[in-house]
Amino acid sequence: MEKDSPALCGEDNRQKRSSNFELLRILTMLCIIAHHYVVNSGITEKITQSNVLQWNSVFALIFGWGGKTGINVFVLITGYFMCKSKISLKKFLGIFFEIEFYEIVFYVFFISVGYESFSLKVFIRTICFPIYDIGYGFCGSYLVFFLFIPYINLLIKNMDEKQHLSLVGLCLLVGMIFQTFLKAPSAFTYVGWFIVLYFISSYFRLHLDGEYDNKWLRDIFSHKKVWRYAVIFSLMLSWVSVVAGAAVYHLLGENLIYYFVADSNKFLAVITAICLFQFFRNIEMGCNKVINMIARSTFGVLLLHANSEMMMRWLWQDLFNNVKAYQTGTENMGYFMFHAFGTVIIIYCICTIIDMIRIKFIEYLFSRKIVLKWRGNL
Predict the structure, then answer these.
(1) Comparing C-alpha atoms, which of 372, 377, 293, 359 is closest to residue 102?
(2) In b/e form, how buried is each residue of 176-203, taking b as 16+ CB within 10 angstroms?
(3) Which of 302, 356, 301, 282 lies closest to 18 in space, CA to CA?
(4) SS3 10
(5) Is 15 a residue whose pLDDT tops 50?
(6) Residue 217 confidence (pLDDT)
(7) CA dihedral sign of residues 308, 89, 146, 345
(8) Would you state the pLDDT for residue 5?
(9) Which long-range contacts (CB under 8 A, 24 or more apart) does 240-244 make?
(10) How far out from the chain centre does Cα 277 lie?
């Protein structure tokens, strides 16, 4: 079994963990980068201004489908491990200072090279980024959600299995079904939705991993073949929903392109994330130190490539010029596809290397020198 540990914090015992979830995190981070390749570069705007059913448009839309599904996967993994673990000052501060480090360093970098003019308002928002991000962005919401974990654990450990399952069902009804199929106003901000995902994955861990006797559910949720087909079906359904949404937009002008896969609480974003989570949960692949080492930087990859509006503008518009590659795809689809896959892989590799350097020097100093000193004074 994997060590009890959170999914995003870069904990020291990651090298000893089974690599099934670590591989999943790498794959889903690639999906998140691909999502940003499309939605943060101006490609989606160009698609809606042209023929959404031409080949380069269809490829781009499917290529960028998985951002919110990936976020759901990350939080499910967090819940799976943290429902049997405890948060600590070191873990929380590790996440907080990693976010602040990348925000401040790259703001100073873009100002110093003249890419952006200094603004006191932007500077203050950069320093206080996690606060302004609460409820609407991933980083700030994840930090607040992380603080709720001890209290969530108290709740789930004092519920029996039926109560836990009923709570999951109620949350999905209110937070997913109503929003997806009835277009009801959102019941949760990201903080609340992350708590819902925590309820789901903690149910898997506490009640389907051998400690409780629900044989029928345990048999289903541990059946590898079931989840292999479930992953294939949910992925195909997600991609079909994107193309169908494009067709509706083309015929009726109503933009439903990513309706079922974005935001995070939409039906297919949730179902596909759960299927992926369950499939990899049942894979037995042992400990692969290379996979674990690379996966340790997935949160850093997210913080780096989606750092700010300045970063996204520089990365997607100025450096890689995604829109031009998309427009070239009308005549040369091979080049566009090569550009899309190549850009995502390059960004992932470079961001991973940068974060490994940060872990080697900055995080080591923080965790071994500063935090231990603070804890000794508490």
Answers:
(1) 359
(2) bebbbeeeeeebbebbbbbbbbbbbbbb
(3) 282
(4) coil
(5) no
(6) 66
(7) positive
(8) 42
(9) 241/268, 242/61, 242/62, 242/65, 243/58, 243/61, 243/62
(10) 12
